[in-house]
Amino acid sequence: MHKFYKVVMSFGVAAALVAGLFVGQSEALVKSGKKTIIRVGNETGKTDSQYVGLEVMAAQVKKLSKGTMELELNPGSVLGSGPAMVDMVKDGSLDIYMGGAGFFAAWDGRLFVFDIPYLFSSAQQAHAILDSDFGAEMLSTLEPFGIKGLAFWENGIRNVTNSVRPIKTPNDIKGLKLRIMPNNPVHVKIWTMFGAKPQPLTFSAIYDALKNKTVDGQEHPISAIYSGKFYEVQKYMSLTRHIYGPLIMIMNKSSFDSLTPEQQKIMIEASKAGAAAQRKFISDNEAKFTAEMKNAGMEIIEVNADAFRNKVRPTIEKDYIKQNGDAWLKRIESLKK
Fold first, then answer.
1. Residues 6+ apart with CB under 8 A from 13
2. pTM of the predicted structure, to 2 decimals
3. What is the DSSP-derived secondary structure letter of residue 298?
């Protein structure tokens, strides 16, 4: 256990970490003047936009709680892979994690809506919908599974990189071994339709797989490609802009419910503040990151998005509606600005 745990408790995890040291709910600790430590895990490192947002969130939690609550940040997959951390939050051995919506779509298939290619025309359009009352409704679908959705964070608009050849048309993807996120059948279908050979891997395994040429390429937003230093082991980045993906910050629901109403409000407000800071960081730095990767030797390729959209969008949307209905799609279309 962390050395500071001699005076604090990490609700929802203490019993799993050190037998016999579980000391009750956070409300009692706050009343007795002791801190509540909330453990947060994420996959990307300290140079990524996620950590920028998490630092803002941590500062807000500390400020709004007058120092009685504190986030313990664990970046860089030090606590495990994304799927592992989802399971840890679900069973209460970790308090908070944020990951792509696809991680949670196995619980409610409607969340696969975010994997429909070219669903949003811009990140700003997506933000308006995710931050609306409908966004809150989408987050609430996680609660029956013991999860509290605090806020939508940013994954961003995804582009494809590889080390074999420039991707200018959909046909250029054929035969490439392409890393995709684990446990996401929609992404398997998308890249199979393009003729690629999908290779599910956790985020922490991507760099070495690219370096060792176990896989030829991967697809991520520009900020993650930059922070992951994939440009060091990839020659080409094609600006396909094929999917906008949010991150969902989740919290163990029992841990959330053990907080006072005021503390719950603090957690939600702080999460939204962190998300706003993360989004701004991405927006402010995307052009800079692209230029730096180009200067490092990566070839940046503009593509005709229509060709990529027409290849996969109709089929993926049809599959989604068949499995999950069209109610969420209609709501999204009605809210687009």
1. 39, 92, 93, 94, 95
2. 0.85
3. P
| Total residues found in the chain within this entry | 337
Q: Range of 138's domain? A: 3-335
Domain with residue 65: its CATH number is 3.40.190.170
**Rounded mean pLDDT of the chain?**
90
Q: What is the model's pLDDT at position 102? A: 86
Q: Which residue has the tokens 């950590």?
A: 51
Q: Three-class SS of residue 74?
A: strand
CA distance readout (Å), 117 to 61, 311, 316, 337: 35, 10, 8, 18
Given a contact cutoff of 8 angstroms between Cβ atoms, the answer to whether 237 and 160 are in contact is yes
In this predicted structure, what is the pLDDT of residue 183? 87
144-177 pLDDT tens trace: 999 999 999 999 999 999 999 999 999 999 999 9
**What is the C-alpha to C-alpha distance for residues 105 and 337, in angstroms, rounded to an integer?**
26
Strands 236-239 and 147-162 turn out to be antiparallel
User: Which segments of the chain are extended strands (E)?
Assistant: 36-41, 69-74, 96-100, 147-162, 177-180, 197-200, 217-221, 236-239, 244-252, 299-302
Q: Is 57 helix (H, G, I), strand (E, B) or coil?
A: helix
Nearest to 123 by CA among 54, 34, 35, 222: 222
pLDDT at 24: 35
Note the pLDDT of residue 54. Answer: 98
Total domains present in the chain: 1
238, 218 Cβ separation under 8 angstroms? no
Q: In whole angstroms, what is the distance from residue 247 CA to residue 229 CA?
A: 20
Beta bridge partners of 177: 197
Could you say which residues of the chain have pLDDT below 50?
1-32
Q: What are the backbone angles phi and psi of residue 329, rounded to the nearest 5°?
A: -60, -45
Residue 319 backbone dihedrals phi, psi, to 5 degrees: -60, -45
